[in-house]
Write a structure and sequence with these properties.
The complex is a heterotrimer of chains A (338), B (309) and C (337). By secondary structure, chain A is α/β, with parallel strands linked by helices. Chain A has helices at residues 2-27, 52-68, 83-95, 107-119, 145-160, 176-192, 208-221, 235-245, 260-269, 280-296, and strands at residues 41-45, 71-74, 99-102, 123-127, 138-141, 164-170, 196-203, 225-230, 253-257, 272-277, 305-308, 311-316, 319-321, 326-328. Chain B has helices at 5-24, 31-56, 64-80, 85-109, 114-133, 151-175, 177-187, 189-194, 199-222, 236-246, 258-277, 285-308; strands at 138-139, 227-228. The chains are: A alpha/beta (338), B mainly alpha (309), C mainly alpha (337).
């Protein structure tokens, strides 16, 4: 019987692996690594798997990979343990990829692995969320934490005329970028909008249902609440649904960072006032393009701009700037389909 | 008094929390937010009822969160293709029962330990769903929300359905033969077999029932919002198990009541909103939740220790 | 070959551990054939490095499960200890070594909390550690307010997690030390036998005169200490300590133990089986990256592997039962009236 077990497992593994060799050819466009001329392999690391935001980035990255004829690897952690990203990067180092593009969940933690990659001659860039500056060559910057935090605070002040109580819903208390955005929101409010008061900060574990529950509790606990600000994407529709169910549409405003596709319904109904985001597909496209250019040597440290299929992007220091984030509202949300 | 000590001690803790809210945050007691809270917890109550049966049967099911997600997404995808609501609901329950039957076959048929089987199915369903959906929300047609009713009547229907199910199950567990079979098998499967029952069949059906209830809960959750999050149900198994054991169901099987589970769930469901209402910073929440679980069971532990002597 | 030694060989070959060893070897050869870099020394050191923390937790989970218990709090305790270690080093100004020692002590204390609730109040381990699972993670979040991160550790400390010493990743030496100690404890001392006895029947063990409570307390305190050690190694490997360290590790550890042939009901199991279970999962996780499979596949295959391993264990019994029933059918069946 044990033999049966071994045999079944072998079949399982061989089956899985046999499929992989097929996948490689179809997913990555012309030529897998090792055939004929050297094909550049770009490894793209999202913060987490199964996240619509990064799937949208991946779509752009795949387009770029096809256009440039490079091999694209896309993998990320499926749980929230901070060590997982490091393990994937270290696997890629031994796999011998040419360039790693990482969206960093933990600035200091992942830098350990990225430095190791650089030591092995692998180029490293970051996108979405930066690592320590010495652990990568460039950061494809879709918006600085400052830009996001200040942007949200400004939008809140504009909608509330600078007066009222605001609650924040974020993904988890331990997520580094969430804390950074929160800090910048609080700084901006403290400096510029004395009338705004941040009364509560609640985590939603990156789940829409939990965000809805948290928002319902917030609405009850803070009767003078004027706005719920959501800085992770599942929270925006969650909070909007809670406000709608509580019958407080218009009295309590909802804004946040989120995908237009997930929020279109609420924006049109007037529950959610505005959603901020950059063009995620462009972010993925630009990241792969810049990564390839870095390997080929057409992009070097010290360059002042980067020209690609999407146009010319300014480089400020070692940050490649994607441009300002968009604010989606009732008037323009139908023009975007991601 | 001694027979239902755990239920009473948990009820005492619940009353303490509610009294604290009445004094320090009377804003908690408003009809509309309370109804919303109840509606949000209704699916969890349904899952907790099923979990109570499973644990009384001396098994455990940690795959319910993943089953919940699979059922929710399947229901959502069906609804998006304009399937009638009743069919969507039946499909969700059917898929849940099917997933439960898979667990049941492995556990009752092959006699594998339930904690390990459901650990494996938990990971497998969750990852398969992630691979398939890649995290994309499912958008539902408008008619599905509140099952086509108005919001407040929809909320009442969902809450009433959950409570009615609890009451029916609570009575059935006491007064219907099938319910007593579950207790008997959980107390001593061999004795139950000698008494003419078929323990493996009872176990199998318990898991199928658990799956069907999970499907029903998923449908109740889908009916509350116009989108389905494929990550929904993450951590649901822990919530349900905590409610069941805090409510006095013995993890060693054969003991416990659904009323206790109800009180346990009420206590745990109140903690998070209570902390929001009491303006406690969010980073204390997990610690307080853990402390409450421990305190609720420690009270019982101290008592049994005394009676043992 | 004499009849006796042949049957001994046969029983050795039919053992769960032997089958699992085959599985690990087959996995390794499979992935080696697919991934050109999989078989390199560097990669195999990576596998070891990535597995040490979960391996440590699985090692100490083995005696716990042998006694019929379970510890869901080890992952959260890892997070809490990482935070405490960072706090002691950065805020209390201790050297990493001294901070490490104190952290081990605190880990023992946390394990002692589980132990005392389980042994003194006779509460089921599943419920107690479900509570401390929330409690430990919650305290870690409360201490750091979720956001505080400890980093910039000295290179001499990071050596523990990122460099090699005498040819192996440094932390492997610690891991081997713990593995040897746990193996000896379980397989070569009377303690080990008492763990199994308790797992088979706590009452029976008590009547046999075994100090059930102190033995139970021992395994949970040991788990606390080793979780603290895992936290220190984890911090050294990542170069940072944060409140979410080790999320979900308890499930990996339990999976590895059960895959390794330890019965979840207690009484049966081996430490080397656990080590093979850890290896099977670790090689699978790493190898699938080299086979360019998505991360999700690792989870799904682990689940399938677990079910396969379990079914293989019971299949012979069921087969025998089925056959005997069919062979028996011509003989007079019990009358149904």
């Amino acid at each position: 019987m044990k033999k049966l077990f071994c045999f079944a497992l072998t079949v399982l593994l061989l089956g899985g692996c046999g499929k992989s060799t097929l996948d490689r050819g179809s997913a990555s466009g012309p030529g897998a690594a090792g055939t004929g001329g050297k094909v550049i392999t770009v490894a793209l690391l999202p913060k987490s798997k199964g996240n619509a935001y990064f799937i949208s980035c991946k779509a752009g990255a795949e387009k770029a990979a096809k256009a440039l004829g490079v091999d694209l690897l896309f993998d990320g952690p499926t749980d929230t343990d901070p060590a997982k990203q490091n393990e994937i990067v270290e696997n890629w180092i031994t796999l011998g990829v040419d360039v790693i593009a990482a969206a960093c969940d933990n600035k200091e933690g992942i830098s350990t692995a990225l430095r190791k990659a650089q030591g092995k001659g692998i180029k490293v860039i970051t996108y979405d969320a930066d690592a320590m500056p010495d652990a990568r060559t460039f950061f494809v910057n879709q918006a600085t934490p400052e830009g996001i935090g200040y942007g949200l605070a400004d939008e809140a002040a504009r909608l509330l005329n600078g007066q009222g109580e605001v609650a924040i819903i974020l993904a988890t208390l331990t997520a580094a970028n969430q804390q950074e955005w929160r800090k910048h929101i609080e700084t901006r409010v403290a400096e510029k909008y004395p009338g705004l008061k941040i009364v509560a900060v609640r985590p939603c574990d990156d789940l829409k249902d939990k965000a809805q529950a948290e928002a319902t509790a917030l609405l009850g606990a803070y009767p003078n609440l004027k706005m719920i600000m959501n800085i992770c994407s599942p929270a925006v529709p969650g909070a909007a649904e809670a406000v709608k169910q509580a019958g407080k549409v218009g009295k309590v405003k909802v804004i946040g960072l989120g995908l237009p596709s997930e929020n279109r319904r609420y924006v049109k109904e007037g529950v959610t006032d505005s959603v901020m985001l950059w063009k995620t597909e462009d972010l993925g496209y630009l990241t792969v393009e810049a990564a390839v250019a870095l390997v080929k040597g057409t992009l070097k440290p010290g360059d002042k701009s980067f020209k690609g299929a999407l146009g010319e992007f300014e480089i400020k220091g070692d940050n490649i700037l994607l441009g300002k984030p968009f604010v989606f509202n009732k008037d323009n949300i139908d023009q975007f389909n991601f | 008094m001694t027979r239902h000590f755990r239920e009473l001690s948990v009820a005492g803790a619940l009353i303490l929390v509610l009294a604290a809210l009445a004094i320090f945050a009377p804003g908690f007691y408003q009809p509309q937010p309370l109804l919303s809270l109840a509606t949000r917890e209704a699916p969890t109550l349904v899952v907790a009822c099923g979990m109570a049966l499973v644990i009384i049967c001396r098994q455990i099911d940690i795959s319910v969160g993943s089953q919940f997600a699979v059922c929710s997404v399947s229901a959502g995808l069906l609804a998006a293709q304009n399937t009638p609501t009743a069919l969507v609901g039946l499909a969700a329950i059917g898929i849940g029962a099917l997933l439960g039957a898979i667990n049941g076959t492995l556990i009752a048929g092959l006699r594998l330990p339930s904690i390990v089987v459901t650990l494996a199915t938990m990971v497998t369903w969750r990852e398969a769903l992630r691979l398939q959906r890649q995290g994309a929300f499912v958008n539902l047609p408008d008619r599905l929300q509140w099952l086509g009713l108005s919001q407040s009547s929809g909320q009442w229907v969902l809450v009433a359905a959950a409570v009615a199910l609890l009451a029916a199950l609570g009575l059935a567990m006491r007064h219907v033969a099938a319910g007593r079979f579950v207790y008997a098998v959980g107390t001593d499967a061999e004795a139950a077999r000698l008494a003419g029952m078929r323990p493996q069949l009872v176990t199998f059906l318990t898991f199928v029932f658990m799956g069907a209830l999970t499907g029903l809960a998923a449908m109740m959750n889908v009916a509350q919002s116009p989108q389905v999050d494929p990550k929904s149900g993450t951590g649901l198994e822990l919530k349900a198990i905590a409610a069941v054991v805090v409510g006095g169901v013995a993890i060693s099987g054969g003991r416990g009541t659904l009323w206790g589970v109800f009180v346990g769930l009420l206590l745990l469901a109140c903690v998070s909103p209570a902390l929001t209402h009491l303006h406690v910073e969010a980073y204390w929440e997990k610690a307080i939740q853990g402390a409450i679980i421990l305190l609720a069971v420690v009270a019982d532990g101290v008592r049994t220790r005394k009676t043992d002597r | 070959m004499s009849e006796n030694s042949r049957s001994r060989w046969k029983s050795l070959l039919l053992r769960h551990e032997t089958a699992l060893l085959f599985v690990v070897v087959i996995e390794w050869l499979c992935f080696n054939a697919i991934g050109p870099r999989f078989g390199t020394l560097d990669n195999n050191f990576d596998i070891l490095r990535h597995t040490v923390e979960i391996g440590l937790l699985a090692l100490v989970m083995t005696p716990i499960i042998l006694t019929g218990g379970i510890d869901l709090s080890v992952g959260s305790l890892l997070g809490l200890c990482a935070i405490l270690f960072g706090k002691l080093w950065r805020d209390a100004g201790l050297s990493p070594f001294a901070a490490g020692l104190v952290t081990l002590g605190l880990g023992a204390l946390a394990g002692g909390l589980n132990a005392s609730l389980i042994t003194l109040l006779r509460l089921p381990p599943l419920i107690v550690t479900l509570g401390t699972y929330s409690l430990f993670r919650g305290v870690a979040e409360a201490i750091t307010r979720g956001a505080d991160t400890f980093t910039n550790f000295p290179a001499s400390f990071l050596f523990l997690g990122q460099e090699r010493w005498l040819g192996l990743p440094t932390q492997m030496w610690l891991f081997c030390g713990v593995a040897v100690v746990v193996w000896l404890l379980v397989h070569r001392t009377t303690f080990g036998r008492s763990f199994r006895a308790i797992g088979f029947s706590p009452e029976g063990a008590r009547y046999a005169g075994l100090p059930v409570r102190s033995r139970l307390a021992l395994v949970y305190v040991l788990a606390g200490v080793v979780a603290a050690l895992a936290a220190i190694i984890y911090t050294a490997r990542l170069g940072q300590a944060k409140a979410d360290a080790g999320t979900g590790y308890e499930l990996f550890a339990i999976t590895a133990v059960v895959l390794g042939g330890t019965s979840i009901f207690g009484g049966v199991g081996t430490v080397h089986g656990t080590l093979l279970g850890v290896a099977a999962i670790a090689v699978l996780n790493n190898g699938l990256v080299h086979a360019r499979q998505p991360r999700e596949a690792a989870g799904m295959l682990t689940g399938a592997l677990l079910l396969l391993a379990l079914s293989a264990g019971v299949a012979p019994k069921l087969w025998a039962a089925w056959r005997s029933r069919h062979h028996a059918s011509p003989s007079p069946a019990p009358k149904s009236t």
